[in-house]
Amino acid sequence: MKQKFNIVTSTCVPLPLENVDTDQIIPARFLKATTREEKFFGDNLFRDWRYRPDGSLNTDFVLNDPTYGGQILVAGKNFGSGSSREHAAWAIAGYGFRVVVSSFFADIHKNNELNNFVLPVVVSEAFLQELFDSIYADPKMEVEVNLPEQTITNKATGKSEHFEINAYKKHCLMNGLDDVDFLVENRGKVEAFEQARKY
Amino acid sequence: MNTLFDKIWDAHVVQQVEDGPVQLYIDRLYCHEVTSPQAFQGLRERGLSCFRPDHIFCMPDHNTPTHDQDKPIEDPVSRAQVDTLEKNAKEFGLTYFGMMNPKNGIIHVVGPERGLTLPGMTIVCGDSHTSTHGAVGAVAFGIGTSEVEMVMASQCILQSRPKTMRITIDGKLGKGVTAKDVALYMMSKMTTSGATGYFVEYAGEAIRSLTMEGRLTLCNLSIEMGARGGMIAPDEVTFAYLKGREYAPKGEAWDQALAYWKTLKSDDDAIFDKEVRFDAADIEPMITYGTNPGMGMGITNSIPTTEGMGEVEKGSFEKSMHYMGFQPGESLLGKPVDYVFLGACTNGRIEDFRAFASVVKGRKKAEHITAWLVPGSWMVDAQIREEGLDKVLAEAGFEIRQPGCSACLAMNDDKIPAGKYAVSTSNRNFEGRQGPGSRTLLASPLTAAAAAVTGVITDPRTLL
Question: How does it assemble (chain B) (predicted)?
Fold first, then answer.
């Protein structure tokens, strides 16, 4: 939830697939909850890839492979496409990921991650490919994600990239603040807007 | 030199946050039962009320069964979620259209048909298909639950301004080519992320010639190209559709609104961040073969091969082919189908039922096909009966179910079993979307009807 974000240094979980949609991240049948229990959603992250139809563990899937672990998920381009379900971000956070790295994110999901103090880090295709290579060469290899500096570093190669985030959202993440706090403080401006609008 | 999007967006900016997003005023918040409970809970925890309760409309649609809606929902978890929405609406003083209320239906069908969705508005909902409402000339987009809570708390949302794109489709659509085919065609050309970061305006002769229902279908699918939203400038088609609708302005208020709505179009010298053009003549009835909506092709074409694909792309493509049980390079015509689904916020409107009925009229449902025909709302259901389409469908062996999201996303009883093939008029063919292991082929109501009567994938033009 509102966990202040600064620097995360961790090993990574590689998911070299493109267009990972939010139906895969958390299938619709798990959206019937009326509370925000991150553990429930985390337990069902990538449910139909983690488990076979008979309920047994799919040992071919990376989350079930003890070789890989950590707080950083690294995925192919267009991560989080499809449904707007914020449950996908809750599942990612609930599983224990604090950063998702990809070369491209779907818009709604990206906002949902940010609103749940999970940092989506957009890197170049070349950086992403090299990152996959580094993880497969050495699963214990670490990546540093530095929010204050807005840099991500592949510690195996030493290469760094700058990533974008607006100053407002960065401030929110680093200080554990959310948008509702801001908007409620600004209700006066909303009233003024309503009185002034023509249509 | 403003675009339609600029005009509406700018008229709703409360403030630009320094080095941050825009605080945008929202005219309508639609809430369904799936993505709202945690937002209401958030308000409760903060001790807040809804800031502008009269701007918020609630209705259940995802969990509602498509039969026996007069009885309690059998699945206790679904029932609890629907009951929670009703309780929340009451507690926070919001308008609620419950099951069996004649105003109930899929939120993206009900909004426009009740005149709640109007040109020039900003509209949000915790649902990616909120892009539907852009068809009347509104800025409408899907949001997450935290953002739903923001709107409840302040009637505003914090958003970065998207870039603008205009997609122009010149020329006339061919026989048997519908708005759904146009959308699937665009997605196949642009991929599921081709419009990510953009708000799209659709323009051109082929778009202008679409009915309101067709425009709603097209804008509904904007999100499947990754677009923040899609919109069409309002015109006489829009005004004729909205006039007299329950919540649309009346009398003098209508005249005033109309005068404003007529200004809602991109200026001749408007500059878009990106312009894309397609020719209507290149579009044929479409069908998808893979596990995202961008994996579509003309129904007479063959599935692409992996030639020239990069490593990650090839891996994703092969995973998709394996899931669907298809081979790269093969044609889908003549392949057996198990289920046909007509409905969803994409194709659950009266025009879709007319199209389906036009193909099955005088024919019979193929024996092995299970067909689910689900109106998008009670209003659509009433229209079906008024026009006598129910009789045409019944004679051909089809029954009409009760309104809801139905088999689009497997949150109610309507699920496609593992391994079975469904030709669906819905919006997503993701793995497991219609039930674990289900295999979805997205298509238009005409193509769905053709499959329903022949039992195999069929070019609908051969039956028209």
Answer: Heterodimer of LeuC and LeuD.
- Domains of chain A (ranges; CATH) run 7-196 (3.20.19.10)
Residue B269, domain member (yes or no): no
- Name the DSSP class of A29: G
Q: Measured between alpha carbons, how far is B370 from B340 in angstroms, rounded to an integer?
A: 6
Residue B391 lies in a domain: yes
The predicted structure's pLDDT at residue B312:
86
Domain ends where: B261, B278, B304?
B261
Q: How many domains does chain B have?
A: 2
Residue whose C-alpha is closest to residue A160's, from A178, A138, A145, A139: A145
Query: Which residue of A48, A51, A84, A103 to mutate against B (max B Cβ within 10 Å)?
Result: A84
Q: Which of B84, B88, B193, B309 to mutate to test the interface with A (most CBs of A within 10 A)?
A: B193
Residue B61 pLDDT exceeds 60: yes
Do A174 and A167 contact (CB within 8 A), yes or no?
no
Residue B237 pLDDT > 70, yes or no? yes
Closest CA to A20 of B443, B324, B291: B291
pTM for the complete prediction? 0.97
Are both B202 and B124 inside the same structural domain?
Answer: yes
Residue the block writes with tokens 């793995």:
B431
Structure confidence at residue B343 as a pLDDT band (50, 70, 90): very high
> Smallest Cα–Cα separation from B34: which of B410, B411, B432?
B411
CB contact (8 A) between residue B51 and residue A194: no
Which of B18, B25, B77 lies closest to A193 in CB terms?
A: B25
**Is B408 annotated in some ligand binding site?**
yes
Chain B closest CA to A128's CA: distance in Å? 11
> Using the 8-state DSSP alphabet, how is residue B269 labeled?
T
Boundaries of domain holding B200: 4-261
- Quick check: B35 and A86 CB within 8 A? yes
* B440 touches B424 (CB < 8 A): yes
> Are residue B252 and residue B295 in the same domain, yes or no?
no
Do B306 and B241 belong together in one domain? no
**Partner residue opposite A107 with nearest CB, options B37, B192, B196:** B196
pLDDT tops 70 at residue A1: no
ipTM of this predicted structure: 0.96
Contact A193 B158 (CB under 8 A): no
C-alpha separations of B202 from B277, B295, B389 in Å: 10, 21, 31
| B410, two tokens | 């497997």
